[in-house]
Amino acid sequence: MARSVVAPLQADASVQVDFLNVQPAEPFPFPWPMVRFINTFPEANYQIPCELALETEHLAERYDLVVLAYQVWYLAPSIPISSFLQSELAARLLADTPVVTVIACRNMWLLAQERVKAHLEGLGASLVGNMVLVDAAGSIASFFATPLWVLTGRRGPHWFGLVPPAGVDEAQIQAADRFGHAILSRFEQNQPLDETLWQGLGAVQVNDKLILSEKIANRSFFLWGKLFRACGGPEAPLRKPLAMFYTVFLVLMLLTVVPITGIIKILCAPLLKKRIAQQKRYFAWPSGE
Q1: Long-range contacts made by residues 277-285, C-beta under 8 angstroms, separation at least 24?
Q2: Can you tell me the distance from the alpha carbon of 213 to that of 226, in angstroms, rounded to the nearest whole number?
Q3: Are residues 137 and 165 in contact, defined by beta-carbon separation less than 8 angstroms?
Q4: Alpha carbons 184 and 190: distance in angstroms, whole number
Q5: Whole-structure pTM over 0.85, yes or no?
Q6: Distance, CA of 215 to CA of 203 (rounded, Å)
Q7: SS3 sequence of the chain
Q8: At 41, is the pLDDT very low, low, confident or very high (cuts 50, 70, 90)?
């Protein structure tokens, strides 16, 4: 997705594009072992930084724009990205700099972006755009497709085609170059990179039925994460059996709480129409739907 967005910029000889691969010093596994996958959520949700292995020799001191591309882990930016946002390098690169965020996820990204926005504000960066591409399989099918991808390393389809391929649709990824063209147009016309940069391009789509679900799930991650961390670090003996127990709890919650909150949202929608519209505008900022 990130390469699709910057492709028009790379094709222009007057624009310098540098990449920084934000990777941990100790790589996370892929595919993930089940218990370790669940056992990672406390550090992800609490944004506990890990040590990073960054190649920075090629980087400039300042940039006209930073494209921050990230995945969502447990309603937070991935551990490598949250670690980067808490680093001295981020403080140097992002201070007083326009930033656009590029998100790939299953379907929930609102609260993760809120955390990124808080980091950027603390670093003195200006968020001027956000684009999000979600799993093409949809919320229900991706409930099965995404875990199978994470745990087996295969995108699918699975189970003789009953479970569709996981991940963002390739056509959507290719179409993301329109955001790069919008950036290039601003450079060519010597116009400022402000909040209007990606407006009108269909950069995000806020699913209002998931707003309450995200808040409930995030509360669960916070409370359970506190218990996990009280047991010690990720390698602590008590963490593994607790992760197995929490897996059962998490599946039950996803099968019950998420659908129920979705139904409640639908039933209350006529009464909360104005509030829902306000929430959608807020979460869609700055690019808008």
Answers
A1: 279/206, 279/208, 279/211, 280/206, 280/208, 283/110, 283/113, 283/204, 283/206, 283/211, 284/204, 284/206, 285/130, 285/195
A2: 20
A3: yes
A4: 10
A5: yes
A6: 23
A7: CHHHHHHHHHCCCCCCCCCCCCEECCCCCCCCCHHHHHHCHHHHHCCCCCCEECCCCCCCCCCCCEEEEEEEECCEECHHHHHHHCCHHHHHHHCCCEEEEEEEECCCCHHHHHHHHHHHHHHCCEEEEEEEEECCCHHHHHHHHHHHHHHHCCCCCECCCCECCCCCCHHHHHHCHHHHHHHHHHHHCCCCCCCCCCCCCCCCCCCHHHHHHHHHHHHHHHHHHHHHHHCCCCCCCCHHHHHHHHHHHHHHHHHHHHHHHHHHHHHHCCCCHHHHHHHHHHHHCCCCC
A8: very high
Q: Taking a C-beta distance cutoff of 8 angstroms, is the pair 168, 135 a contact?
A: yes
Note the pLDDT tens digit of each residue in 179-189: 999 999 999 99
**Phi, psi (5° rounding) for residue 251?**
-60, -45
Enter the tokens of residue 73: 């882990």
Report d(CA 48, CA 50) in Å as an integer.
7
Pairing between β-strand 126-134 and β-strand 98-105 as defined by DSSP bridges:
parallel
Q: Which two tokens stand for residue 185?
A: 């147009």
Per the DSSP assignment, residues forming a β-bridge with 105 are 134
| Token output for 166 | 């996981």
Backbone angles phi, psi at 18, to 5 degrees: -115, 140
Q: How far apart are CA 258 and CA 210, in angstroms?
A: 8
- Mean pLDDT within 115-144: 93
The C-alpha atoms of residue 102 and residue 113 are separated, in whole angstroms, by 10
Tokens of 251: 């599946």
**Largest Cα span, the chain:** 59
